[in-house]
């Protein structure tokens, strides 16, 4: 019996950007489903409500257990879903590059007179870090990158970062596990090691590390 995963993209993108990762996970024996949403057009609770309807449809089609993999903002959509409908989280969650503690880069954009509108509806109760608590019993693994190229050079992100999100921002209260890999914020979607770590967590509820790093 194959295991199903639903993948969610992040800010300013669509299903297309998750397809390379979906392909790598299919190679590891998973069945994949993609959920698309217009990231800046509605609030995260509205995205979560739409996702809830999609999950009800999938469960009606005889999918018993569904895991979740979400990139960046997609992980915050899942946080809202988990708080709104914890009964629909029937598998494990892996978030990659998700700023669970809020995004310093987004904060600077939001408070800029010229650039605040580019975030649409994604800042309040999302990228500002003011998120609902993760319900007990939900197994979430957070994967971060520390290859800091991109916006990180422009905005001078403090500490290790993936070029967009700081490693410290990817910690989620109540998470099951956390790991940092040498990847960029977008590059993690195309990286085999990232796909391997996702697979391990979805199977066993933890990431795997070289023995000398344990």
UniProtKB/TrEMBL annotation:
InterPro entries recorded: AB_hydrolase_1, AB_hydrolase_fold
Region forming the signal peptide: none
Claim: Hydrolase is one of the keywords in the record: yes
PANTHER family named among the record's database cross-references: SLL1969 PROTEIN (PTHR37946)
Keyword DNA-binding appears in the UniProt entry: no
Species in which this protein is naturally found: Neisseria montereyensis
GO MF entries: hydrolase activity
Protein name according to UniProt: Alpha/beta fold hydrolase
Domain AB hydrolase-1: 5-98
Keywords tagged on the record: Hydrolase
Positions in coiled-coil regions: none
One family name in Pfam for this protein: Abhydrolase_1
